[in-house]
Write a structure and sequence with these properties.
The protein is mainly α. The protein has two domains: about 150 residues; about 90 residues, no CATH class. The chain contains nine helices and no strands. The longest helix is centred in the last third of the chain and has 57 residues. The radius of gyration is 28 Å and the shape is rod-shaped.
Length: about 270
């Protein structure tokens, strides 16, 4: 039953992830085409002309076809940043995790399993979920007269590993996408830069006087894509590292609590 509920939650999250990317692409194309490409943002009310001075919508529109792709990546980053903040905050639970683990260890030293379960119910985070699951197994093993002590310790350790394997995927969900965008954003920005420079050099290569409009558009395309790509990648990298650091702390707390549970059982039971 526990694994079934986890599977349903994971399926819902995978469905959410699958929807985010196409929705972000559609929103980016609409914004690019109808807001940034609005003729009012350009000289002569024509988006084929240069952007009006100081009109950033028009300037970004001149970044070319790569801009909607970079906007899609940026929207995906924003979406998963908000989603991960909510998920990891929920996984952290109420109060300080370190204090929670210390409280559990102190209660287990007194062999107060019921008290430890009450503390887990109050904390409500991923660490508490793992600890409570192991405590349920802990109580079952206390009443089991058929297994030897070593077998019970092995069963308890296995419960720690299984409970942990159910909680960690929920914490790490979508981090791979952020990690991918840290590289993809830079590469797409570089591609847009190269396309812009090709246009700029094409304007310079014209016979006679260079095409100043095409030259300006080429330079604008290169700079806009560079800024968009680097900004998106930097944002994704900052939050990816922030989230992984928080998850590492939770993982360490889970490991510490699990070790304490096994040691407590070994100490309090012959």
């Amino acid at each position: 039953m526990k694994k079934s509920r986890k599977s349903k939650k994971r399926g819902f999250k995978l469905g959410f992830t699958a929807l985010v990317i196409p929705i972000a692409l559609i929103v980016a194309i609409i914004v690019f085409q109808f807001i940034m490409g609005n003729p009012e943002n350009f000289q002569g009310n024509n988006h084929d002309n240069s952007a009006l001075p100081g009109n950033y919508y028009g300037i970004i529109y001149k970044g070319g076809i790569i801009v909607p792709i970079l906007m899609t990546l940026l929207l995906i980053v924003f979406t998963f940043i908000v989603e991960r903040i909510i998920a990891i905050s929920k996984g952290t639970g109420k109060g300080d995790v370190t204090e929670f683990v210390q409280d559990v260890k102190e209660l287990l030293e007194k062999n107060d399993v019921e008290g430890a379960m009450v503390v887990c119910d109050q904390q409500k985070g991923s660490v508490a979920n793992v600890v409570r699951s192991v405590l349920v197994k802990y109580k079952q093993l206390e009443n089991d007269k058929t297994l030897l002590k070593d077998q019970k310790l092995t069963a308890l350790q296995k419960e720690v590993e299984e409970a942990t394997s159910l909680e960690l995927p929920a914490l790490e969900q979508n981090l791979g996408i952020l990690a991918t965008i840290t590289s993809l954003g830079t590469l797409m920005g570089l591609l847009g830069t190269v396309l812009g420079m090709i246009r700029a050099f094409g304007a310079l290569a014209n016979a006679g006087a260079p095409d100043s409009v095409a030259l300006a558009q080429g330079i604008s395309e290169a700079l806009v894509n560079t800024a968009f790509g680097i900004g998106t990648a930097a944002l994704a990298l900052i939050f990816y590292n922030t989230f992984t650091t928080r998850i590492d702390k939770l993982t360490y707390s889970i490991d510490e609590a699990g070790f304490s549970l096994v040691q407590s059982y070994a100490t309090n039971h012959s």
